[in-house]
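User: Could you check the structure of this?
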Amino acid sequence: MQRRSTCTYDLAPGPGGSPGGDGGQDFVERLPWEVSRSILARLDPPSLCSAALTCRRWRLLIQACDLLWRGGCLEVRAVCQREVDRDRGDGLSWKVTLVRNYVVSLVKRDWLAGRYSHVGAAEELQGRRMCPLDAHTWGEILEAELQR
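Assistant: Sure, the predicted structure tokens are below.
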């Protein structure tokens, strides 16, 4: 079964001459959807989430186009290949896969980079992001620690 990412937002021109337009002057409204999508696809996951909060039009476009989340998901896959492959194999969208694995990838990357190797006190961990990790991930982290 081949999976296709599609943009399901209604691209019919609105009153402003663009998808869902209301006469505003933002690039999503003024440029062809393909160009806007290309620009939005270059955003990192936190920036894409922030862009979705900009206005209703942007939120609808960003949420409707699963392909926008693919780049961030592939970056997460560099650290969490097993998790991303499992979620994609289960048929989850790029967006859902990214949301499920983004924080885990940040924590796992920090652990694997040795950022927690020499913690002397709990205060040193304040402000650091933490989340539950599975046994396989802890095994990878232990292996990396043993190699240091």
